[in-house]
Amino acid sequence: MKRIALVTIGTQGDVQPYLALAIALKERGYSVVLGASEEFQDMVEGYGVEFHTLGPSIQAFLLQQRF
Fold first, then answer.
1. pLDDT for the residue 51
2. What is the pLDDT of residue 10?
3. How would DSSP label each residue in 52-64?
4. How many CB atoms lie within 10 A of CB 42?
5. Overall number of domains in the chain
């Protein structure tokens, strides 16, 4: 079985297309792991796709106020 790793950093709008691709590849028999920030773990695993964290929340980082 071929194993494919998909990696994305960003908001949910950046992660969802990769998740859709991961699901389609998995349905075609590939072993897929999706790497994204930890806030998306439940969403990814909820679709039965293996998840690997790439670190803390990107959303929280983007919302930080810098002075």
1. 97
2. 85
3. EE-SS-HHHHHH-
4. 9
5. 1
Nearest residue to 7 via CA among 32, 43, 33, 35: 35
Calpha distance 13→31 (Å, rounded): 23
Q: How many CB atoms lie within 10 A of CB 16?
A: 13
**Residue ranges of the chain whose pLDDT lies below 50:** none
**Token digits of residue 8:** 């994305």
Q: Which domain holds residue 12?
A: 3-63
Residue of 56, 58, 66 lying closest to 14 (CA atoms): 58
Integer Cα distance of 44 and 23 in angstroms: 9
